[in-house]
Design a protein that fits this description.
Chain A is α+β, with helices and mostly antiparallel strands. Chain A has 18 helices and 15 strands. Chain B is about 30% helix and about 25% strand. Chain B is α+β, with helices and mostly antiparallel strands. Classes of the chains: A alpha+beta (about 450), B alpha+beta (about 900).
Chain lengths: ~450, ~900
């Protein structure tokens, strides 16, 4: 049983989305040309989320991928809320006042974000009031704290991440009289999510990362070849600095139990994450909240389970590491993707495949016979193989889809093998997660003309 | 890459009898600095300077010197035969679609065959024959049409079965073939050696050859070539011949007075292999597999195979680029589809070892035909280039024609299809050329079915009504860059299907055009004919009348307001142009000619009108939109719109009047339709075009008006036996030969061009006669349709070819127009064709090898039409009462 190529395409393209920055007078004045995004589920339902929005009250564009674990609730909440927290953190004092006054007097709010969403990317209506109130509290505090200084993007990003995680934690502790909402905020808090968010404003690119998703810059060298530049650090056991950080935050006695089998407390892969209050709250708080919580929570073995060697919480933080990069004309695109992509493909291959896709040129070394003895038959075989490699480029209208096709379908030669692709995509739900993880990708394309004019 | 070609060139004996050339050649090959320092100086002047030492330049030099011109200098920027000529595949094939190209190839073949004997230079001439394969029935039809043409010319040619193909060639896979065409006379040559042999012979005849001499530009004074400027100094000359191949375009544009030579280079690849274990015999036929887009020939016991891919790579669009020339590289990925086709055709060559993939640029032209002739703007500036990859096949014949042209004033054949003047400035944009040649190169192998149109370089010249007509379902074709309507697709028809079907049989638009024709016959139709070339010639005194009386054969001294159909003849009485001239006033004339006459007619008149500032000729083509109102009710529409009586009593046939139509004033209305049907041509200043069109359509509604296109027009004019210039008439056809004596006034009181020739014909009779044929046993639905170029047989003997054909919806038969000759049965000598000769024969028309009985007529069926119309009118009025 195989899927036909059209069936494969319909699976691959089900979640693809593209956004092109609109032009004014035939000119795109933004440093971003647009982006392609897509996701391929392995979990059912998928636990990855993605977001993209343009800031309307400040300049810049926000793009992020979120990898959820222990359910998708936290990733969903972060994907809905984080950009508002970032946008608010970036707003000047006057704008915050204006917004607050509008809310106060029941006037229409200034729109803060323009979302670029795939129809499958939903927002939970039920929680919007709750989320709004938390956000309002945040900006009210910002108004009170008015330092008079202009907002630093790096600081804004860090504040927003920390504040949102804090709000998630608080909302779960306080609970909600509405039982549905009460259960929701608890699920959000007890599940977790990593986040990798890019903020692009002119030539200033900031990447804030919490967890093990990655941001990779595609750089085109003078000779036309592609190289990858990492704009994030993985927060996991492979990152020695991160292991070191965790160790310094806890007493020496816990050194051995902190990281086991490359996992935090032997349980969690990412070393930083939103939610996951089981790694943040004290044992007493956890017990109190679970016991007073609804039955579904109380009966859940996972939530009741306290991590072993749990002595000095919190063990986990949502604080991101922020990297600033000043865009150059040779920086052609940025790939944001969850670990589902990075564990199947090397970053260099990712950048090459996207680069070749976007430039439409397949940089294969031209073949020259030279002095070698080659028969027509051998040459024909070689050319057919090269042709197959190129033809996969033309099936996709979306760079993210193209990457997923390679990530799932690549054979040992780095060419998309339809048979393999078909097998991987027709795995039964319960098996899929064993062969691959959820994959979420955003490919942001930069406008070299605008960038070189800075 | 160089290695192989050095070997190839080493076969050539560089020994010329003429010391001038030898010294020039030797000094370039010598490494001695002393020799290099003293090349033979250029002459200060010459009669002819030829630029380009490839097959074209050397062939022109060879033929000019044969015709007795001796004062000739040939300049080559590098070495002789070093460009495309050296790299090309060396196939001489007569499998050509038009008889002119066929004749050129036939002549070339015969010339090359005896060249070795003539010059003592080995040309590698080998008669291998060629096999053109057909994978589909349509392809086989196309080959059969060529075979019909070849057979009547006496060139051996056979349609063979796949089994016979296998017998002729040991390696061919025949499983997917339906048939093939075998030409035993086709040959292979070493193209560079042929070129060198021609150069040697020319040199012996006195032609000076200078290598390593670049032409920078041409000096022009008073519209004539005066000198050629080179990197080694100036040569004064009367004639310049641009044979610069792919650089011809640029060279044409290098002077102050640009000469537009529309051609563009594309990369062209072919493969060379090491010999087979059992090397191929030297006489194994060349294989052409057009459906696979490839050709395969023997090459030193191995094979040489190239082709014309679907996605060509044009190059040098931005002009000459030395860096690029040296970097033309093998592109295997690009060659892959052709390699696949080769291995499918000859699976056994899989084990052959590759020697090289050669990248050899070829130049292509906008209409797939080569370019020759004199520049319309610079006299004495001749061109021969743009061979569309058939340079070797055409080289001999093309060189001969151009030499004849220069020496005698015109070649021995009608070469209008190749004439540089068929193009104008509008085909010389680099973007246009780049786009068009990308379409032309794949067409080399595509099936050529009747009435195909180019898809690129379109919508360049359009009528102001273009959008209106397009919205009403117009389907377009292009002539001289101008979009013209073929027919209108009624709403609801499957449009895609109509455009994409290619067939040699009854086309899908049959009923659509039938309806348009019916409407022309019974009610009224509008055809936008704005593409026609329109000149105004006026003077302060009688100069205009006097000049035109001399240049045109009919009497133009008619009352003001009359329209005269007349030929613009050459000295031999042949049609250089066929036009309608309206006398607007005593001193001004309005001249309407076919669309593609814009450049040729202008140059012809410019060169012959006296230089007189009081005599003004203006090209007003762009100023007027032309609407043709055809049909019995055109009278009613027009009289209602103008409040003027338009009946024949008030507005007789061949009459022209400026009048108002709707709100618009100054519309030139002429009572002609170019079809023999009643109606009017409206020449409308362009700003009124939309208004007049809308008025006509609104008013015409109650008379059943509809839009029509050129296909309907074509059917109408052919069934009325109307000859069109460019299709039926050419420079070798006189009015006497096409029954148009009435358009010649031999006694108009003054001499005119061609008068003597016509007088002689009037006395002695004509040697060919334009005749109308009605196909008798032809099944419109089932049989192949005639197109043009089909052989005509009289009593079983070949007498001529058709020039155009159409289905007559009135006669419900196919009508072919063509020329009948009278060849003496024994000697083949041409005899006078009499009316009796025409009338007393049994005729057959050969369509792709199948003969159909035809009835010959010298006059149209006017009575038949009259009867029919009366009957139809009754039907129509009955319909309207409903």
């Amino acid at each position: 049983f195989y899927l036909t190529p059209p069936q494969v395409n319909s699976i691959l393209k089900a979640n693809e989305y593209s956004f092109k920055v609109p032009e004014f007078d035939g000119k795109n004045v933004s440093s971003v040309l647009g982006f392609d995004s897509n996701q391929l589920p392995a979990n059912a339902p998928i636990e990855d989320r993605r977001s993209a929005a343009t800031c309307l009250q400040t300049r810049g564009m926000l793009l992020g991928v979120f990898d959820g674990h222990a359910g998708c609730a936290c990733a969903q909440a972060v994907s809905e809320r984080l950009f508002y927290y970032i946008a608010v953190s970036l707003l000047p004092h006057e704008t915050l006042l204006e917004i607050e006054n509008a809310v106060e007097s029941g006037r229409a709010l200034l729109p803060i974000l323009q979302w670029h969403k795939h129809p499958n990317d939903y927002f939970s209506k039920e929680a919007s009031k709750l989320y709004f109130n938390s956000l309002r509290t945040y900006w009210q505090e910002l108004i009170d704290l008015n330092s008079g200084e202009t907002t630093d993007v790096k600081e804004a990003l860090i504040n927003a991440f920390k504040r949102l995680d804090n709000d998630i934690s608080l909302e779960a502790q306080v609970g909600d009289p509405n039982s549905f909402l009460n259960y929701l905020v608890l699920r959000v808090a007890f599940s977790g999510a990593t986040a990798c968010v890019a903020h692009v404003d002119g030539v200033d690119l900031h990447v804030a990362n919490t967890g093990d998703s990655r941001a990779m810059l595609g750089v085109q060298e003078e000779d036309g070849s592609w190289s990858a530049v990492s704009l994030s650090y993985d927060h996991n056991a492979q990152n020695e600095r991160e292991v070191e950080r965790v160790k310094t935050e806890h007493p020496k006695s816990e050194e051995k139990s902190l990281v086991k089998q490359d996992r935090l407390l032997g349980l969690l892969m990412p070393f930083r994450a939103f939610g996951d209050v089981k790694f943040k709250w004290s044992i007493e708080l956890q017990k109190r909240v679970v016991e007073s919580g609804p039955d579904q929570l109380n009966e859940n073995e996972y939530t009741k389970f306290i991590p072993p060697n749990y002595h000095t919480p919190p063990y986990l933080t949502a604080e991101p590491e922020v990297i600033h990069h000043r865009l150059r004309p040779q920086d052609k695109f940025l790939v944001l993707a969850t670990d589902g992509l990075w564990e199947t493909m090397h970053r260099q291959d990712v950048v090459r495949i996207v680069g070749e896709y976007l430039t439409g040129v397949h940089h294969q070394q031209p073949i020259a016979v030279g002095g070698y003895k080659v028969t027509l038959g051998q040459m024909h075989g070689l050319l057919t193989e090269r042709r197959a490699r190129i033809s996969s480029v033309f099936e996709d209208q979306n760079a993210a889809t193209h990457l997923i096709r390679h990530a799932v379908g690549n054979n040992e030669f780095g060419a998309v093998d339809h048979e393999r692709l078909s097998k991987m995509l027709s795995l039964p739900e319960e098996l899929a997660r064993m062969y691959r993880d959820d994959i979420t990708i955003i490919v942001v394309q930069f406008n070299s003309h605008v960038i070189s004019a800075y | 890459a160089a290695g192989m070609f050095l070997r190839l060139l080493a076969d050539v004996r560089w020994r010329a009898a003429d010391p001038r050339w030898r010294s020039a050649a030797r000094c370039h090959r010598s490494t001695s600095a002393a020799a290099e320092a003293h090349p033979v100086p250029l002459p200060a002047q010459a009669q002819v300077v030829i630029c380009g030492g490839g097959i074209m330049g050397t062939s022109v030099a060879y033929h000019l010197s044969k015709l007795g011109w001796k004062d000739i200098v040939l300049l080559e920027q590098g070495r002789l035969a070093a460009g495309t000529t050296r790299f090309c595949a060396g196939i001489v094939s007569m499998a050509r679609h038009t008889s002119l190209e066929l004749k050129m190839a036939d002549y070339s073949n015969k010339l090359y065959q005896q060249l070795e004997q003539e010059t003592g230079i080995q040309t590698g001439y080998t008669k291998t024959g060629s096999i053109s394969l057909a994978q589909t029935q349509d392809r086989l039809i196309s080959l059969k049409r060529i075979a019909s043409s070849l057979n009547v010319m006496g060139i051996p040619c056979e349609i063979i079965t796949p089994k016979q193909v296998a017998q002729l060639h040991p390696l061919i896979n025949i499983h997917d073939l339906v048939g093939a065409m075998y030409l035993p006379e086709d040959a292979l040559v070493l193209s560079a050696s042929v070129s060198l042999a021609l150069a040697t012979a020319a040199s012996r005849n006195g032609v000076q050859i200078h290598e390593r001499t670049s032409v920078s530009h041409i000096s022009v004074q008073k519209g004539r070539v005066t000198a050629v400027e080179t990197d080694r100094g100036q040569i004064k000359c009367q004639y310049f011949v641009n044979c610069a191949g792919q650089w011809a375009y640029e060279l044409g544009h290098s002077g102050e007075e640009p000469v537009n030579i529309p051609l563009h280079a594309c990369e062209h690849f072919y493969l060379l292999t090491h010999p087979l274990k059992e090397p191929l015999a030297s006489n194994v036929p060349t294989v052409v597999d057009p459906d696979g887009r490839i050709y395969i020939r023997n090459w030193q016991g191995g094979i040489l195979s190239g082709g014309f891919e679907k996605n060509p790579k044009p190059l040098f669009t931005e002009g000459r680029n030395q860096l690029e020339i040296h970097n033309l590289q093998e592109d295997w990925d690009h060659f892959e589809p052709l390699l696949s086709a080769l291995l499918r055709r000859m699976p056994d060559v899989e084990a052959l070892q590759i020697m090289q993939l050669v990248n050899c640029p070829e130049s292509f032209t906008p209409d797939m035909r080569c370019i020759m002739g004199e520049s319309p703007t610079v006299r004495g500036y001749f061109v021969l280039a743009g061979m569309n990859s058939a340079g070797i096949s055409y080289g001999g014949g093309a060189g001969k024609y151009l030499a004849e042209w220069m020496v005698n004033g015109y070649p021995s054949e009608n070469v209008w299809p190749l004439d540089l003047k068929r193009f104008g400035t509008l085909q010389s944009s680099r973007t246009f050329l780049r786009h068009r040649v990308m379409e032309v190169m794949p067409l080399m192998c595509d099936l050529k079915v009747p009435r195909w149109d180019f898809q690129t370089g379109r919508q360049l010249r359009t009528s102001p009504l273009y959008d209106r007509l397009d919205a009403q379902g117009a389907r377009w074709m292009e002539k001289h860059g101008f979009e013209r309507v073929k027919y209108f697709v009624p709403p609801g028809s499957d449009l895609l299907d109509l455009d994409q079907r290619k067939t040699f049989y009854k086309p899908d638009w049959f009923d659509i055009v039938g309806a348009e024709v019916k409407c022309c016959k019974e009610a009224v139709c509008v055809i936008d004919m704005s593409s026609f070339t329109k000149f105004e010639i006026s003077s302060t005194g009688d100069q205009a009348l006097e000049s035109l009386q001399y240049l045109f054969s009919n009497d133009l001294d008619v009352p003001v307001g009359h329209v005269v159909h007349t030929g613009m003849l050459n000295e031999k009485g042949g049609y250089e142009n066929d036009c309608s001239i309206a006398r607007l006033s005593k001193r001004s004339f309005f001249m309407i000619s076919p669309t593609d006459q814009q450049v040729h007619c202008w140059a012809w008149l410019k060169n012959r009108l006296p230089e007189d500032s009081n005599l003004v000729m203006e090209d007003v083509t762009w100023k007027y939109t032309a609407l043709n109102l055809i049909g019995p009710r055109a009278v009613d529409v027009l009289s209602e719109l103008s409040y003027a009586p338009m009946t024949p009593e008030h507005f007789p046939s061949l009459f022209c009047k400026e009048m108002s139509v709707g709100y618009a004033n100054g519309i030139r209305v002429m009572s002609i339709t170019h079809t023999g049907e009643p109606g009017f041509m409206l020449y409308i200043p362009i700003e009124y075009a939309l208004h007049v069109y809308n008025e006509v359509m609104n008013m015409g509604q109650k008379y059943g008006i509809r839009n029509a296109g050129y296909y309907a027009l074509r059917s109408l004019r052919i069934e009325k036996f109307f000859a069109f210039w460019g299709q039926d008439l050419d420079a070798f056809t006189t009015p006497m030969e096409c029954g148009r004596e009435f358009q010649v006034k031999l006694e108009k009181g003054m001499d005119f061009v061609g008068q003597e020739a016509l007088l002689e014909q009037k006395q002695n009779g004509v040697y060919k006669r334009f005749t109308m044929f009605i196909l008798e046993d032809h099944d419109t639905d089932m049989d192949l349709w005639p197109w043009w170029g089909e052989p005509i047989f009289r009593n079983g003997r070949y007498v001529g070819k058709t020039t155009s054909s159409a289905y007559s919806y009135t006669l419900e038969r196919h009508v072919c127009l063509g020329f009948v000759h009278h060849f003496d049965e024994k000697t083949g000598e041409e005899l006078v064709v009499t009316t009796d000769f025409i009338n007393q024969g049994e005729y057959e028309i050969d369509i792709a090898g199948q003969r159909f009985q035809a009835k010959a007529k010298l006059y149209p069926f006017s009575s038949l039409f009259a009867q029919r119309r009366r009957k139809d009118e009754e039907e129509l009025s009955g319909y309207q009462r409903e």
